[in-house]
Amino acid sequence: MIIDLTDSTSSEIASALLKARRNAGSPAMGMVGTIVVVVDESSHHDAMKAANEAGREHPSRVLVAILRPGRGASGLDAEVRVGEGIPGEAVLLRLHGELAKVPESVVTPLLLPDSPVIVWWPGGGPRVPAEDPLGRLGRRRVTDAAATRRASVDYTARAEGYAPGDTDFAWTRLTPWRALMAAALDQYPTKVTGAEVTAARGNPSADLMSAWLQSRLKVPVEQRNSRGPGVTAVRLFTPSGPIALTRPDGAVATFSVPGQPDRPVALKRRTTSELLSEELRRLDPDDVYAKTLACMVERDALPADAKKVAETARKSTAAKVTAAGKKVVATKKAAPAKKKVAPAKKIAAKKVAGGKKAAKR
Which burial class, exposed, middle or buried, applies to 335 when counting CB atoms under 10 A from its CB (0-12, 13-18, 19+)? Predict the structure, then answer.
Protein backbone atom coordinates (compact mmCIF):
# COMPACT_ATOMS: atom_id res chain seq x y z
CA MET A 1 0.00 0.00 0.00
CA ILE A 2 1.29 3.46 -0.96
CA ILE A 3 -0.20 6.68 0.42
CA ASP A 4 0.87 10.03 -1.04
CA LEU A 5 0.67 13.10 1.20
CA THR A 6 1.33 16.59 -0.18
CA ASP A 7 2.05 19.60 2.01
CA SER A 8 1.61 17.38 5.04
CA THR A 9 2.68 17.30 8.71
CA SER A 10 4.25 14.73 11.00
CA SER A 11 0.89 14.14 12.69
CA GLU A 12 -0.81 13.34 9.39
CA ILE A 13 2.01 10.97 8.43
CA ALA A 14 1.73 9.11 11.76
CA SER A 15 -2.04 8.77 11.25
CA ALA A 16 -1.47 7.46 7.72
CA LEU A 17 0.95 4.85 9.04
CA LEU A 18 -1.58 3.65 11.61
CA LYS A 19 -4.34 3.50 8.99
CA ALA A 20 -2.17 1.60 6.53
CA ARG A 21 -1.14 -0.88 9.21
CA ARG A 22 -4.77 -1.59 10.12
CA ASN A 23 -5.79 -1.97 6.48
CA ALA A 24 -2.97 -4.44 6.02
CA GLY A 25 -4.33 -6.51 8.91
CA SER A 26 -1.38 -5.99 11.26
CA PRO A 27 -2.32 -3.38 13.87
CA ALA A 28 0.53 -4.45 16.19
CA MET A 29 4.00 -3.10 15.49
CA GLY A 30 6.49 -5.95 15.21
CA MET A 31 9.47 -3.68 14.52
CA VAL A 32 12.73 -3.48 16.43
CA GLY A 33 13.87 0.05 15.60
CA THR A 34 13.87 3.06 13.31
CA ILE A 35 16.30 3.60 10.45
CA VAL A 36 16.67 7.23 9.42
CA VAL A 37 18.27 7.57 5.99
CA VAL A 38 19.56 10.98 4.89
CA VAL A 39 19.98 11.09 1.10
CA ASP A 40 19.56 13.25 -1.97
CA GLU A 41 16.96 12.82 -4.68
CA SER A 42 19.25 10.88 -7.06
CA SER A 43 20.15 8.08 -4.64
CA HIS A 44 17.06 7.68 -2.46
CA HIS A 45 15.72 4.68 -4.42
CA ASP A 46 18.83 2.54 -3.87
CA ALA A 47 19.07 3.59 -0.23
CA MET A 48 15.45 2.70 0.49
CA LYS A 49 15.87 -0.65 -1.26
CA ALA A 50 18.95 -1.48 0.83
CA ALA A 51 17.19 -0.46 4.06
CA ASN A 52 14.16 -2.61 3.23
CA GLU A 53 16.37 -5.60 2.43
CA ALA A 54 18.16 -5.17 5.74
CA GLY A 55 14.73 -4.97 7.36
CA ARG A 56 14.04 -8.59 6.43
CA GLU A 57 16.47 -9.53 9.17
CA HIS A 58 15.60 -6.56 11.39
CA PRO A 59 12.04 -5.32 10.71
CA SER A 60 12.17 -1.56 11.16
CA ARG A 61 10.46 1.69 10.33
CA VAL A 62 12.48 3.31 7.57
CA LEU A 63 12.36 7.11 7.33
CA VAL A 64 14.07 8.40 4.19
CA ALA A 65 14.70 12.14 4.45
CA ILE A 66 15.46 14.12 1.29
CA LEU A 67 16.57 17.61 2.27
CA ARG A 68 15.92 20.41 -0.21
CA PRO A 69 17.01 23.63 1.48
CA GLY A 70 16.46 26.83 -0.47
CA ARG A 71 14.67 30.13 -0.59
CA GLY A 72 11.36 28.59 -1.54
CA ALA A 73 8.39 28.06 0.73
CA SER A 74 8.68 25.50 3.49
CA GLY A 75 6.81 22.30 2.90
CA LEU A 76 6.67 18.59 3.57
CA ASP A 77 5.69 15.93 1.05
CA ALA A 78 5.48 12.30 2.13
CA GLU A 79 4.96 8.86 0.68
CA VAL A 80 3.91 6.10 3.08
CA ARG A 81 4.57 2.49 2.09
CA VAL A 82 3.29 -0.55 3.99
CA GLY A 83 3.20 -4.10 2.68
CA GLU A 84 4.10 -4.98 -0.92
CA GLY A 85 7.23 -6.85 0.09
CA ILE A 86 8.29 -4.30 2.71
CA PRO A 87 9.04 -6.13 6.00
CA GLY A 88 8.28 -3.06 8.15
CA GLU A 89 7.18 0.43 7.23
CA ALA A 90 8.77 2.97 4.91
CA VAL A 91 8.18 6.70 4.70
CA LEU A 92 9.73 8.93 2.06
CA LEU A 93 10.01 12.52 3.33
CA ARG A 94 10.79 15.51 1.12
CA LEU A 95 11.58 18.61 3.15
CA HIS A 96 11.58 21.95 1.31
CA GLY A 97 12.85 25.41 2.18
CA GLU A 98 13.49 26.40 5.78
CA LEU A 99 12.01 23.12 7.00
CA ALA A 100 14.97 21.25 5.49
CA LYS A 101 17.26 23.11 7.91
CA VAL A 102 15.49 21.58 10.93
CA PRO A 103 14.76 18.00 9.80
CA GLU A 104 14.72 16.73 13.38
CA SER A 105 11.43 18.55 13.95
CA VAL A 106 9.79 16.33 11.33
CA VAL A 107 11.60 13.06 12.06
CA THR A 108 11.34 13.03 15.86
CA PRO A 109 7.52 12.55 16.05
CA LEU A 110 7.81 9.60 13.64
CA LEU A 111 10.35 7.60 15.64
CA LEU A 112 9.17 4.36 17.19
CA PRO A 113 8.93 4.74 20.99
CA ASP A 114 11.33 2.86 23.26
CA SER A 115 13.40 1.48 20.39
CA PRO A 116 16.87 2.25 19.02
CA VAL A 117 17.39 4.74 16.21
CA ILE A 118 19.99 4.22 13.50
CA VAL A 119 20.93 7.21 11.33
CA TRP A 120 22.58 6.41 8.00
CA TRP A 121 24.16 8.73 5.43
CA PRO A 122 24.68 6.69 2.21
CA GLY A 123 26.32 9.68 0.47
CA GLY A 124 29.21 10.03 2.89
CA GLY A 125 28.00 11.86 5.97
CA PRO A 126 29.03 14.87 8.05
CA ARG A 127 32.53 15.31 9.41
CA VAL A 128 31.25 14.94 12.97
CA PRO A 129 28.10 12.76 12.87
CA ALA A 130 27.25 13.24 16.55
CA GLU A 131 26.91 17.01 16.04
CA ASP A 132 24.47 16.68 13.13
CA PRO A 133 20.82 17.54 13.99
CA LEU A 134 19.64 14.10 12.90
CA GLY A 135 22.78 12.40 14.21
CA ARG A 136 21.86 13.47 17.74
CA LEU A 137 18.74 11.30 17.49
CA GLY A 138 20.65 8.13 16.69
CA ARG A 139 22.01 5.50 18.98
CA ARG A 140 24.06 4.36 16.00
CA ARG A 141 25.41 6.74 13.34
CA VAL A 142 26.58 5.11 10.10
CA THR A 143 28.58 6.97 7.46
CA ASP A 144 30.35 5.79 4.30
CA ALA A 145 33.74 7.33 3.62
CA ALA A 146 33.96 5.55 0.25
CA ALA A 147 30.92 7.47 -1.02
CA THR A 148 32.00 10.94 0.05
CA ARG A 149 32.50 13.58 -2.59
CA ARG A 150 35.52 14.97 -0.82
CA ALA A 151 38.90 13.86 -2.13
CA SER A 152 39.73 12.43 1.30
CA VAL A 153 37.82 12.04 4.53
CA ASP A 154 38.95 14.27 7.38
CA TYR A 155 39.61 11.47 9.85
CA THR A 156 41.14 13.96 12.26
CA ALA A 157 37.71 15.58 12.74
CA ARG A 158 36.08 12.14 12.95
CA ALA A 159 38.55 11.06 15.64
CA GLU A 160 38.32 14.25 17.67
CA GLY A 161 34.53 14.36 17.40
CA TYR A 162 34.01 10.62 17.90
CA ALA A 163 31.04 9.67 20.06
CA PRO A 164 29.98 6.18 21.14
CA GLY A 165 27.81 4.80 18.33
CA ASP A 166 29.78 6.25 15.40
CA THR A 167 30.86 3.85 12.67
CA ASP A 168 31.56 3.78 8.95
CA PHE A 169 30.92 1.29 6.14
CA ALA A 170 34.63 1.53 5.27
CA TRP A 171 35.20 -0.13 8.66
CA THR A 172 32.32 -2.59 8.29
CA ARG A 173 33.78 -3.87 5.00
CA LEU A 174 36.88 -4.98 6.90
CA THR A 175 35.09 -7.34 9.31
CA PRO A 176 35.88 -10.58 7.38
CA TRP A 177 39.45 -9.41 6.69
CA ARG A 178 40.09 -8.66 10.35
CA ALA A 179 38.50 -11.94 11.45
CA LEU A 180 40.69 -14.01 9.11
CA MET A 181 43.93 -12.25 10.06
CA ALA A 182 43.15 -12.56 13.76
CA ALA A 183 42.31 -16.25 13.33
CA ALA A 184 45.60 -16.81 11.50
CA LEU A 185 47.62 -15.49 14.42
CA ASP A 186 45.53 -17.53 16.86
CA GLN A 187 46.23 -20.74 14.93
CA TYR A 188 49.84 -19.93 14.10
CA PRO A 189 51.16 -17.74 16.94
CA THR A 190 54.39 -16.08 15.88
CA LYS A 191 56.21 -12.77 16.00
CA VAL A 192 55.14 -10.22 13.38
CA THR A 193 57.92 -7.94 12.15
CA GLY A 194 55.86 -5.82 9.75
CA ALA A 195 52.68 -5.69 7.67
CA GLU A 196 51.53 -4.57 4.25
CA VAL A 197 48.11 -3.57 2.90
CA THR A 198 47.48 -3.40 -0.86
CA ALA A 199 44.36 -1.72 -2.24
CA ALA A 200 43.03 0.60 -4.91
CA ARG A 201 44.30 4.15 -4.65
CA GLY A 202 42.32 6.31 -2.22
CA ASN A 203 40.50 3.39 -0.61
CA PRO A 204 39.47 4.41 2.95
CA SER A 205 39.19 0.78 4.08
CA ALA A 206 42.90 0.33 3.39
CA ASP A 207 43.68 3.31 5.62
CA LEU A 208 41.58 1.84 8.43
CA MET A 209 43.09 -1.63 7.95
CA SER A 210 46.62 -0.23 8.18
CA ALA A 211 45.78 1.74 11.31
CA TRP A 212 44.12 -1.30 12.92
CA LEU A 213 47.14 -3.54 12.26
CA GLN A 214 49.53 -0.91 13.59
CA SER A 215 47.47 -0.30 16.74
CA ARG A 216 47.15 -4.01 17.50
CA LEU A 217 50.57 -5.36 16.44
CA LYS A 218 52.75 -2.30 17.18
CA VAL A 219 54.73 -2.78 13.96
CA PRO A 220 55.23 -0.58 10.87
CA VAL A 221 52.50 -1.05 8.27
CA GLU A 222 53.12 -0.13 4.63
CA GLN A 223 50.41 0.66 2.10
CA ARG A 224 50.72 -0.10 -1.60
CA ASN A 225 48.43 0.66 -4.53
CA SER A 226 46.81 -1.87 -6.83
CA ARG A 227 44.13 -1.88 -9.52
CA GLY A 228 41.54 -3.06 -7.02
CA PRO A 229 38.74 -3.73 -6.55
CA GLY A 230 38.91 -2.49 -2.97
CA VAL A 231 41.45 -4.15 -0.71
CA THR A 232 43.35 -6.80 -2.66
CA ALA A 233 45.93 -8.12 -0.19
CA VAL A 234 47.04 -8.06 3.45
CA ARG A 235 50.39 -9.56 4.46
CA LEU A 236 51.96 -10.10 7.87
CA PHE A 237 55.72 -10.65 7.76
CA THR A 238 57.04 -13.21 10.26
CA PRO A 239 60.40 -14.99 10.80
CA SER A 240 58.91 -18.12 9.22
CA GLY A 241 57.53 -16.31 6.17
CA PRO A 242 54.55 -14.09 5.29
CA ILE A 243 50.97 -14.78 6.36
CA ALA A 244 49.00 -13.50 3.37
CA LEU A 245 45.38 -13.01 2.39
CA THR A 246 45.11 -12.01 -1.27
CA ARG A 247 41.92 -11.26 -3.22
CA PRO A 248 42.65 -9.98 -6.73
CA ASP A 249 39.14 -10.47 -8.16
CA GLY A 250 36.91 -9.22 -5.32
CA ALA A 251 35.27 -12.63 -4.86
CA VAL A 252 37.64 -15.44 -3.81
CA ALA A 253 40.75 -14.95 -1.69
CA THR A 254 43.81 -17.14 -1.15
CA PHE A 255 44.93 -17.70 2.43
CA SER A 256 48.65 -18.50 2.78
CA VAL A 257 50.47 -19.57 5.94
CA PRO A 258 54.15 -20.63 6.16
CA GLY A 259 54.54 -24.39 5.98
CA GLN A 260 50.92 -24.97 4.95
CA PRO A 261 49.28 -25.35 1.52
CA ASP A 262 47.37 -22.36 0.18
CA ARG A 263 43.63 -22.39 0.82
CA PRO A 264 40.84 -20.63 -1.08
CA VAL A 265 38.50 -18.51 1.04
CA ALA A 266 35.13 -17.02 0.02
CA LEU A 267 35.60 -13.28 0.50
CA LYS A 268 33.22 -11.52 -1.86
CA ARG A 269 32.53 -7.80 -1.72
CA ARG A 270 29.32 -7.42 0.26
CA THR A 271 26.29 -5.41 -0.79
CA THR A 272 25.06 -2.28 0.99
CA SER A 273 22.14 -4.13 2.57
CA GLU A 274 24.51 -6.75 4.01
CA LEU A 275 26.70 -4.03 5.51
CA LEU A 276 23.67 -2.31 7.02
CA SER A 277 22.41 -5.61 8.45
CA GLU A 278 25.71 -6.11 10.23
CA GLU A 279 25.50 -2.68 11.80
CA LEU A 280 21.94 -3.38 12.97
CA ARG A 281 23.11 -6.52 14.78
CA ARG A 282 25.40 -4.56 17.05
CA LEU A 283 24.18 -1.33 18.62
CA ASP A 284 26.77 -1.00 21.39
CA PRO A 285 29.77 1.35 21.02
CA ASP A 286 32.62 0.06 18.85
CA ASP A 287 35.70 0.83 20.96
CA VAL A 288 38.04 -0.82 18.45
CA TYR A 289 36.87 1.57 15.75
CA ALA A 290 37.53 4.51 18.06
CA LYS A 291 41.09 3.33 18.75
CA THR A 292 41.66 2.76 15.05
CA LEU A 293 40.55 6.31 14.25
CA ALA A 294 43.00 7.65 16.83
CA CYS A 295 45.79 5.56 15.31
CA MET A 296 44.96 6.95 11.85
CA VAL A 297 45.60 10.45 13.14
CA GLU A 298 48.95 9.30 14.53
CA ARG A 299 49.87 7.68 11.20
CA ASP A 300 49.08 10.87 9.30
CA ALA A 301 51.63 12.71 11.45
CA LEU A 302 54.39 10.16 10.78
CA PRO A 303 56.99 10.72 8.03
CA ALA A 304 56.76 8.53 4.94
CA ASP A 305 59.80 6.44 5.89
CA ALA A 306 58.21 5.49 9.22
CA LYS A 307 55.31 3.86 7.36
CA LYS A 308 57.54 1.56 5.30
CA VAL A 309 58.59 -1.97 6.19
CA ALA A 310 62.34 -2.60 6.08
CA GLU A 311 63.62 -5.33 3.77
CA THR A 312 65.13 -7.17 6.73
CA ALA A 313 61.67 -7.37 8.32
CA ARG A 314 60.15 -8.75 5.11
CA LYS A 315 62.61 -11.65 4.82
CA SER A 316 62.01 -14.82 6.76
CA THR A 317 64.66 -16.55 8.91
CA ALA A 318 64.96 -19.36 6.37
CA ALA A 319 65.68 -16.88 3.61
CA LYS A 320 68.30 -15.14 5.76
CA VAL A 321 70.01 -18.46 6.57
CA THR A 322 70.02 -19.45 2.88
CA ALA A 323 71.43 -16.08 1.88
CA ALA A 324 74.13 -16.32 4.55
CA GLY A 325 75.06 -19.83 3.39
CA LYS A 326 75.35 -18.70 -0.23
CA LYS A 327 77.60 -15.84 0.88
CA VAL A 328 79.94 -18.21 2.74
CA VAL A 329 80.13 -20.54 -0.26
CA ALA A 330 80.84 -17.64 -2.59
CA THR A 331 83.63 -16.41 -0.28
CA LYS A 332 85.27 -19.82 -0.27
CA LYS A 333 85.12 -20.02 -4.05
CA ALA A 334 86.63 -16.55 -4.43
CA ALA A 335 89.66 -17.29 -2.19
CA PRO A 336 92.74 -18.43 -4.23
CA ALA A 337 93.75 -22.03 -3.61
CA LYS A 338 97.35 -22.73 -2.45
CA LYS A 339 99.24 -25.30 -4.51
CA LYS A 340 100.64 -28.22 -2.61
CA VAL A 341 104.23 -29.15 -3.42
CA ALA A 342 105.26 -32.78 -3.12
CA PRO A 343 108.08 -33.52 -0.58
CA ALA A 344 110.34 -35.07 -3.28
CA LYS A 345 110.14 -31.95 -5.39
CA LYS A 346 111.01 -29.81 -2.36
CA ILE A 347 114.19 -31.85 -1.72
CA ALA A 348 115.20 -31.63 -5.37
CA ALA A 349 114.66 -27.91 -5.39
CA LYS A 350 116.83 -27.49 -2.30
CA LYS A 351 119.69 -29.53 -3.89
CA VAL A 352 119.59 -27.43 -7.04
CA ALA A 353 119.67 -24.24 -5.00
CA GLY A 354 122.62 -25.58 -2.98
CA GLY A 355 124.52 -26.54 -6.16
CA LYS A 356 124.10 -23.05 -7.57
CA LYS A 357 125.49 -21.48 -4.41
CA ALA A 358 128.56 -23.81 -4.49
CA ALA A 359 129.25 -22.94 -8.13
CA LYS A 360 129.29 -19.23 -7.35
CA ARG A 361 131.91 -19.73 -4.64
Answer: exposed
